[in-house]
Every structure is written in C-alpha cells, then in structure tokens.
Design brief:
Elements (H helix, E strand, L loop, with lengths): L2 H12 L13 E2 L2 E2 H6 L11 H14 L3 H5 L3 H14 L1 H14 L18 H40 L4 H11 L2
Antiparallel strand pairs: 1-2
Helix pairs in contact: 1-3, 5-6, 5-7, 6-7, 7-8
C-alpha cells in the first residue's frame, strides 16, 4: 500500500482552491478544509496552502492517526477505501463502517466475535478483520469493500435528503467516492 500514491490521487481529484457556497466546510485547498488546516497549524490564506502541508495533513490525520496503515498491512483495498471515506466523512465514520460491516459479516459470531462500535481501529477490530479474512480470503476483501461502500452510499443519500443544499454534491460523491 503506497500512501503517497493514495494522497496524490486524492489531491488530483480534489483539485486546488475551492469555496462552494453550499459547502459547510467553507474554503478548501487540495481537499483540506480551512478548519482542518487551522487545527493543524496552518494560519495563512487557503489559496496559499502549500501542497506539502496538505500531504502531511493527509498522512497524519487521515492515515496514521486512525491506524489505517495497520489495516493496509492486512487488506490494502479496504485501507484505501477507509482513507478516502475518512477524508470525505471523517475517519471515525469510515472506521464505524468497517466495524458495522465486520459485525454483520461474522455469521452471528460463528467466524469471530462481534466488536464494539467505538469507531477506533484497535486490537479487537484488527482481530475481527483477521478473522474475516481468514475465513473469507481475497474474495472476502471484495465483499467487505462492497459492504463499506453500501454504508457510505446510504450516508450520502441521507445527507442529500436531510439538507437539500447537499444535493449539489450527491452526484459527485456517488460518482467519485463509490466503486
């Protein structure tokens, strides 16, 4: 799993500076919101956010802090999806999708125990992932990815339904973030 390539792909997709009037996140650059930039020590104008600083934020906040690197050692495709979902919806939401999917796919606890939905990648979540992959193998990783993307897609539709201004983003979210 090459995190540098994942970050480059996100930055290519997100583009440079933006300030869409319907986006509650306000100004962004390279996909980094002004709030995230400020929380990570950047005090300048968002148009001038250095690409290197955006890369560092992606690596630290959206890869290392939520421990998606630990998932990548087991299931690189899942880690890439969690990283992308975490950027758009938050790492805790992405992790909760993983945990929900693992619990739903454990055949009533026959393959491995249910895990707490705490939105944290820790030893129990990793053990459940190991248990799932041990029972389902490579094909299982594809199914787990589908389950995570199904939860993500439902979240996007819900966001558009609950706030009509989000309808401006729904098509792009589904086109660029799912499958």
């Amino acid at each position: 799993m090459d995190i540098d390539r994942l970050i480059d792909a996100v930055i290519d997709r997100e583009g440079g500076y933006g300030n869409h009037p319907a986006d509650r996140g306000g100004e962004t650059n390279f996909g980094i919101t002004v709030a995230v930039a400020r929380a990570n020590g950047y005090a300048g104008g968002m148009r001038q956010l250095p690409r290197a600083q955006a890369v560092a934020i992606y690596r630290r906040i959206y890869w290392l802090r939520p421990h998606f690197d630990r998932v990548a050692a087991r299931a690189p495709t899942i880690a890439a999806e969690l990283f992308d979902t975490g950027i758009n919806l938050g790492p805790k939401v992405a992790t909760a999708f993983l945990q929900r999917a693992l619990n739903a796919l454990n055949r009533g606890g026959a393959d491995y125990l249910d895990i707490a939905l705490d939105a944290l990648i820790g030893p129990r979540t990793l053990a459940a992932l190991d248990g799932f992959l041990g029972h389902r193998g490579t094909a299982g990783e594809r199914v787990l990815l589908k389950a995570i993307e199904a939860l993500q897609g439902e979240r996007y539709v819900h966001l558009a339904e609950s706030r009509p201004a989000n309808e401006a983003f729904l098509y792009g979210w589904l086109a660029n973030r799912i499958g």
